[in-house]
Specification:
Layout: E1 8-13, H1 15-19, H2 23-33, E2 37-40, H3 47-56, E3 61-62, E4 75-80, E5 83-88, H4 91-96, H5 98-106, E6 114-116, E7 121-125, E8 130-134, H6 136-142, E9 149-157, E10 161-167, E11 173-177, H7 180-192, E12 194-195, E13 201-202, H8 207-218, E14 223-232, E15 234-236, E16 239-241, E17 243-249, E18 252-259, H9 274-282, H10 288-293, H11 296-299, H12 307-322, E19 326-327, E20 343-349, E21 357-364, E22 369-374, H13 383-396, E23 402-404, H14 411-422, H15 427-432, E24 435-437, H16 438-444, E25 448-449, H17 457-463, H18 475-488, H19 494-517, E26 544-545, H20 551-559, E27 580-581
Helix pairs in contact: 17-19
């Protein structure tokens, strides 16, 4: 197993993902995720899926409905890379032997043990608009009040994360904390003192206050604190991302990744969906390596695969296997032939319908320098960060273009609206700035094939050899963190959030350079594009393109004969329904 900075990785799979997919696909999942433990989700007994997983995966496999500890213990204990994971057959088993559970958890390492219990879920009582926690009584009885504990359940979707405070005697819900990730971050910052911009440290607060805070966090007294985190499939664009990787740390799940099963094995290849994969498998083509070794003339014997589609499948399979991008046209990259390289841009907001752009990050490859414009003091003033950013951009770099990844799906759209609203004296100049989008050029316009399992920026950059800063953040967490700052006024770990934004900017430039160094594709096959290819001339006309469809739509189209590949962008962002432009090019010299 690979080292993950003290984390243990658990791969959570629904039984259908194990039983319904070929061995080659599951082998690809194992090689990619590299789990320390494999969780076959319940809550029903699925012995066939459990047996198949035990045969195919090298890591320990557990299936809660079939778990029972030695000597009829209420759980089975797994040591995953130094992390104790207690797998229970259900809440009833925990409650029946609560003393043994409580004793084991007190002895656990790390400080916050992880319990897998499929009976835990939330339910809503619509008549009183109240959310309850199923299994709360059993958890309150079995878990010690003086220890933090994390409960993982497959009955809630991956990404669900709330801390429930329960009355120890009855399991009655006393309180619910909706963003424990942010609370943990704030607590970590407070332990060392919060540092302001001048470097001074706030160490105020008595020992009694600190002890009171610790007791509240862990439960203490007559209440039990339980952090409940989901591991079940996530619905995205009508398609279930049912392969879930959970990185366990000292405070529970610190990082979650979800994948569609179609991102692995043959189905990861452009033009191959489940039906086509089955047809190929019947002819002895079960892996991408098999596909590359199969002559196109033989592939065309498969119903629905013509000569052109067979060629395209081979091109993409080679990209995925070699990890090298492929330029499908001779069109230059956005700004590739301009005198100075574009500035890589990323923004952070307080949500998908933002009320503030609280961070603007810019990486300049020319000087290998990064600038961050962050609102750390007054979140009620959305204009100050934008004004500082525009001052710098127009004052220092008036002749530079901007570059984003799917910027027309989010960054440019919101920046334009916020500049018009809050710094209108810069609105005209903002519109004249060339705004380039590498995702649009490569994916939507079909100018390149990328080796990532999806076309998310982090997946593509990682496949191309970029090593990220491992901040543990994503767009949703940074937005939730800033929302907490707005509500409480308690400062965040600003350095960590700036590092996350910088990481995206540097990853974008890494992808740009790898595409720039890829061979031109004169005479090679070209995938259908969303629009005509982009001209790199400063006098190029603005044009529009709609955001790419989801992975699920692509695979469905593939089975119908469409070989286009389009993935969701690096964040869940709302597309401009009227299309988006590569804009501001007309007057650029």
């Amino acid at each position: 197993m690979s080292e993950r900075a003290g984390r243990a990785r658990v791969l959570a799979l629904p039984p259908s993902a194990i039983v319904d997919h070929p061995v080659a696909t599951l082998r690809d999942v194992e090689a990619t995720v590299d789990p320390d433990g494999v969780w076959v989700l319940g809550p029903s007994r699925e012995p066939r899926a459990y047996a198949r997983a035990r045969q195919l995966f090298d890591a320990p496999v557990f299936h809660p409905p079939l778990e029972r500890g030695l000597d009829d213990d209420p759980f089975r204990r797994y040591d995953l890379e130094g992390h104790d994971v207690f797998v229970s057959s259900g809440a009833i088993a925990l409650e029946a032997d609560s003393d043994a559970v409580s004793s084991a958890i007190r002895d656990a390492d790390p400080e916050s043990p992880t319990i897998v219990c499929e009976d835990v879920a939330t339910s809503v009582r619509p008549t009183v608009l109240e959310t309850t926690l199923e299994g709360a009584a059993a958890l309150a009885t079995a878990l010690p009040a003086d220890r933090r504990a994390t409960v993982l359940t497959g009955r809630l979707p991956a990404g669900y994360d709330e801390r429930w405070y329960l009355e120890a005697d009855t399991g009655a819900v006393l309180d619910v904390e909706h963003d424990p990730v942010v609370a943990n971050e704030l607590e970590s910052t407070d332990e060392t003192g919060s540092t302001d911009e001048t470097g001074s440290t706030d160490e105020t607060g008595s020992d009694e206050e600190a002890e009171s805070d610790d007791e509240a966090e862990s439960g203490g007294g007559n209440r039990v604190a339980v952090r409940v985190q989901g591991a079940g499939p996530v619905e995205r664009y009508g398609n279930a991302e049912s392969i879930v990787a959970l990185d366990l740390g000292s405070a529970g799940v610190e990082r979650t990744e979800t994948h569609d099963p179609g991102s692995f094995g043959l189905e990861a290849v452009t033009g191959i969906g489940p039906k086509t994969a089955r047809r190929l498998g019947e002819r002895g083509v079960s892996t991408r390596e098999d596909l590359l070794e199969t002559p196109p003339s033989r592939l065309t014997d498969v119903p629905g695969i013509g000569r052109e589609r067979a060629r395209k499948m081979g091109v993409h399979a080679e990209v995925l296997e070699t990890g090298e991008p492929r330029r499908l046209t001779d069109d230059p990259l956005p700004g590739e032939n301009w005198p100075r390289p574009p500035l890589c841009l990323d923004v952070e907001t307080d949500g998908l319908s933002p009320t503030i752009i609280w961070q603007v990050g810019v990486y300049d490859s020319e000087s290998d320098s990064y600038r961050a414009f962050v609102e750390k003091e007054d979140p009620s003033d959305p204009g100050s960060v934008l004004e500082a950013f525009c001052d710098w951009l127009l004052g220092i770099h008036p002749d530079r273009a901007l570059l984003t990844w799917n910027g027309w799906g989010f960054d440019y759209r919101h920046l334009g609206a916020f500049v018009n609203r809050h710094v209108p004296f810069y609105a005209e100049e903002w519109e004249s700035i060339p705004k380039l989008d590498l995702y649009l050029w490569a994916v939507s316009d079909g100018n390149a094939l990328l080796p990532g399992r999806t076309n998310k920026l982090e997946d593509v950059a990682s496949a191309l050899g970029y090593e990220d800063a491992d901040t543990g953040l994503d767009g949703a967490r940074t937005a939730a963190a800033y929302q907490r700052f707005v509500r409480t006024g308690v400062k965040l770990d600003w350095g960590r959030h700036e590092a996350y934004c910088e990481d995206d900017c540097r990853a974008l430039w890494h992808v740009y350079e790898r595409l720039r160094g890829a061979p031109r594709a004169s005479g090679s096959v070209q995938l259908p594009s969303a629009t005509s290819s982009q001209s790199d001339s400063p006098d190029a006309k603005s044009r529009s393109t709609s955001r790419s469809d989801s992975d699920s739509a692509t695979r469905s189209a593939a089975d119908a004969g469409d070989s286009s590949r389009s993935d969701a962008s690096d964040r869940t962002r709302t597309a401009d329904p009227t299309g988006s432009e590569q804009a501001g090019l007309g007057d650029f010299e």
